[in-house]
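During the second year of the project, the team shifted from modelling isolated chains to modelling whole assemblies. The rationale, set out in the original proposal, was that interfaces cannot be judged from single-chain predictions alone. As a representative example for this report, we include one of the complexes processed in the last quarter. Its constituent sequences, exactly as entered into the pipeline, are reproduced here:
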Amino acid sequence: MDARQLAGGIRAGRLEPQALEEGFSDLHPPYDDHEALVAADRCYFCHDAPCATACPTSIDIPLFIRQIATGTPEAAAKTILSQNILGGMCARVCPTETLCEEVCVREVAEGKPVEIGRLQRYATDRIMARNIHPFERAAPTGKRVVVVGAGPAGLSCAHRLAMKGHDVVILDARAKPGGLNEFGIAAYKSTDDFAAREVDWLLGIGGITIETGRMLGRDLTLTELTSDYDAVFLGLGLGGVNTLGIEGDDREGVLNAVEFISELRQAGDLSALPVGRDVVVIGGGMTAVDAAVQAKLLGALNVTIVYRRSQARMAASAFEQELAQAKGVRIICNATPKGVHGNGAVREIEFEFTDDDLTPTGESFRLPADQVFRAIGQSLVTEGLPVLAGRKIAVEGPGRTSLPGVWAGGDCAAGGDDLTVTAVAEGRDAAEDIHATLMR
Amino acid sequence: MADLTSTFVGIKSPNPFWLASAPPTDKEYNVRRAYEAGWGGVVWKTLGEEGPPVVNVNGPRYGAIWGADRRLLGLNNIELITDRPLEVNLREIKAVKRDYPDRALVVSLMVPCEEAAWKAILPLVEETGADGVELNFGCPHGMSERGMGSAVGQVPEYIEMVTRWVKQNSRMPCIVKLTPNITDIRKPAEAAKRGGADAVSLINTINSITSVDLDLFAPEPTIDGKGAHGGYCGPAVKPIALNMVAEIARSPETRGMPISGIGGVTTWRDAAEFMALGAGNVQVCTAAMTYGFKVVQEMISGLSQYLDEKGVGLSDLVGRAVPNVSDWQNLNLNAISKAKIDQDLCISCGRCYAACEDTSHQAIAMSPDRVFTVKDDECVACNLCVNVCPVEGCISMERMDIGATDPRTGKVVPAEFGDWTTHPNNPMARAAE
Ligand SMILES: Cc1cc2nc3c(=O)[nH]c(=O)nc-3n(C[C@H](O)[C@H](O)[C@H](O)COP(=O)(O)OP(=O)(O)OC[C@H]3O[C@@H](n4cnc5c(N)ncnc54)[C@H](O)[C@@H]3O)c2cc1C
Ligand SMILES: Cc1cc2nc3c(=O)[nH]c(=O)nc-3n(C[C@H](O)[C@H](O)[C@H](O)COP(=O)(O)O)c2cc1C
Ligand code: SF4
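Output from the structure prediction step:
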């Protein structure tokens, strides 16, 4: 423990560069060839395999693992990518413990699943390292489709459309494509600029142009897009962030977890990135865990996640919760924020204990805090969009919205989990439907 | 994606992977699903003559041996030929062939050793539109007790005679399926050729008892306290099958005769190995019985990737390794290697040490801190350490340079080839010309 870690306030350089590098290295390091073969050998090649059913993109998992086992990881990659073009990112970020690996018959029988995610990474890394793009475009159809949002949903949709022979333009408000793959996913899940490399590789199909800095609603309207293009896909994600709605929410030092993470993801030099000594994260999902763990890895002394219901109801998986706790993050449950206190900047945050139905107990406590992250959910910025269902765009079947010629998928569309893999599946399925509609 | 289209004795199929005559091909339901899963062809489960069909046992008909993690390595069976009526099979064959004209459909036959029996069944098969017939001279249990199957396959004269009947009484391509339960596989292959066979297929199953129940004191599978030997197949039989295929492929008498390779084909690599040793296509039974019809997808993708990476066509692969299958006496005794342990990969388990120290040439040294190194002055390059090492690629054989001195013999590694035929220790040595 040295003075830099003890120093109060939001400051940079709390840890040595080497400690930073170690902390932010791969959460699940890649397999070497031998490890991959040993892991692949454990797969039973189940019939109508539960893992494949659990995968939102329905990857033929037994087949790809068998292809690894027989020494053809490139063929394995093709099996993966033909269902999920962002199979490389999904291998890194999917909560496999609640998807494929949860239902692996060996998890059920022995408590030790085949490590599907890491095997998927082994195969997809291989094909990307060899710079193979295993798909070809069909003959040009002469149709033009615009995709708004270069996140997983938009990229997956664009790739499938390009493969079918359509010309695709992707518009994104940000300066870089990738969506949350580039700006949101925890740094230790996507190391070595993987998100950007994957986008470059994906564009290898041809027929896709990306225009960054172009924002729907600011620079163009949906009406313009529907008249200029044969079809529109909206993969906007959730741009807004829910506020705490309590006194002091606007104090200096209180910020959105997603912004903290996005700054961290874009930082060239982590030792120049400031973080508080006493960090409090409010929320119970993946974003809360990611913000807390990364704050800790940057050198924050005390990091606490405060969630308003019981730990069992946290949206973050058990694995994610354990990861946070293993990194030294404290998790307090059944506590609702009541006020952010301080003299200008935040110094303390006050909570009241609640039961699982959020009924206040009257018992309250304060935590010292020089930095507070809001991680209580993102929301859709909804102006000028098709009809909503709740707070997201209403869709029917493979992403059809209320407007003819307009499809939507990913986080901005109602239904489905807010996961990278779900966004990929929805983008792909919408592309198939767009194709079928345009070629009718 | 390489072109896997295959033509075998004039029979076309979209890939060289056929299901062997066995339970997977016993009925229309199976064969349709097999084609849908991607199999290029099937050899229908062996048909017998008209009349009441054979009956099977009503207890266990399979036994097995397993490797680590209960991976099935060898399967043994006491099943007979089809136990469904001939006319039902023929009707189904006709229906399937009509719906899948692009897939190979060959019908396996086994009827008594009388010309009349063959004359009777051949037109019935021809009428279904099937692409050819395979003569089952291989089944080693049950049917052989009745003078059929391997009882025919073990007598070259019978093979020749029956094959001739078939060729005289039918226009269909005729594949003769050989039994491995014989000392020299070339003899039945030669007999088939003399009889006019278009091809041979091999191997059928090997006589076997997989295990003994040590409480009942009976071989397994056990039926009411007794067991009979069965036929062995699966990954464990592949080495035996590969050798037999190679023997036929390189024998001057049978060279060039089309071969359908069978026996333990489980992955694309197994198939490629059979083909390199001269098989024009492969047939699969146990892998499908273990993993389901879907296994063929890995075989297709893997073989296709291999051919693409090698930049060769499927037909270029066939027989490519045959010229390198040699007799022992022609191996180069002047090619001298030494084992080398990659210390970065070594996990210090010591298995190589135990193997070499206890059973080989005492050529591996072990230090007190468990570093294992090869003693070049003792190593005869037998390869045992490579084979027992659990880490692939950790121990390798390194060829010594010409002109270097072998520390074991103190002799210089010669540049020229030298085999046993010219070796001074060989009393029959011929002087090098
Ligand atoms: C911090 C964090 C961590 C996460 N961790 C994981 C994880 O580990 N595993 C996992 O599976 N999921 C994780 N998720 C969820 C996952 O990132 C999302 O579900 C996924 O990215 C949704 O993809 P999308 O394409 O719908 O939207 P996004 O990835 O959000 O992409 C939307 C894109 O649209 C652009 N855009 C938005 N509005 C406009 C506009 N008006 N005009 C033009 N462009 C616009 C944005 O700039 C963005 O590039 C995490 C999310 C967050 C916030
Ligand atoms: C249960 C069973 C039944 C078989 N029945 C036949 C048969 O009726 N006719 C035949 O020619 N071969 C039969 N065979 C042998 C197979 O066709 C094949 O030659 C053998 O199993 C080796 O291939 P494999 O290692 O891929 O299983 C049978 C094999 C099994 C396991
Ligand atoms: S596989 Fe099992 S269930 Fe099916 S017939 Fe054989 S013994 Fe019966």
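Chain B has two domains: 6-324, 328-432. The mean pLDDT of chain B is 96.
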